[in-house]
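pasting for ref
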Amino acid sequence: MGWFLTASEMLRASARPAARAGGLMALAAVAFAATSATAEPMIDKGASGDSARLEVVLDGKITPSCRLGGGGDVDLGELTGGEQVEANFALGCNVPFELNFQSMRGGLAHVTKPRGEGPYAGTLGYTLTVSVPTLKPAPAVMRGAFNSEELAAGRTLSSGEAVAAGGGRLQLRTVMPQGAGLLAGEYSEVLSVTVTPRV
């Protein structure tokens, strides 16, 4: 027996290969599209390129400095011994410092006869007391006490690691004359105070 196809069956039979061909074409198109998509380079958004850095270096300095103010003339009046005077002075240092004290004459000395004459002395000694507030960073007070003979050779106070807190005070007290007392006349003394930054 032979096989016979009706016209409608022939149409369906011919349509199947066409459908298969269309499906293959569609797959080929999808494959081509996929190939085209994967051909594009992949970019990592987290590593978009080499980084660059700019550095700005800042420099500066503060110059060590000390300032000392005050001084002047002090009149002790009649010298009988036991005279006492106090004097404040201004002091500013942005670093630790040293204060040097120097007596020019080793005491209150007669202007023309510092060695005296006969039984009368020509020089009257004194004691000097120094107090200087400091910061380290806690407040403290630097102190010193010297006699006029020591000051003739010079004496120095060091603040250690502290800086000045703004000033200081000097207290001078004359000693009692020995023997017959002092020779009549004018007496004078120069006490020098020098501040030096210590860095």
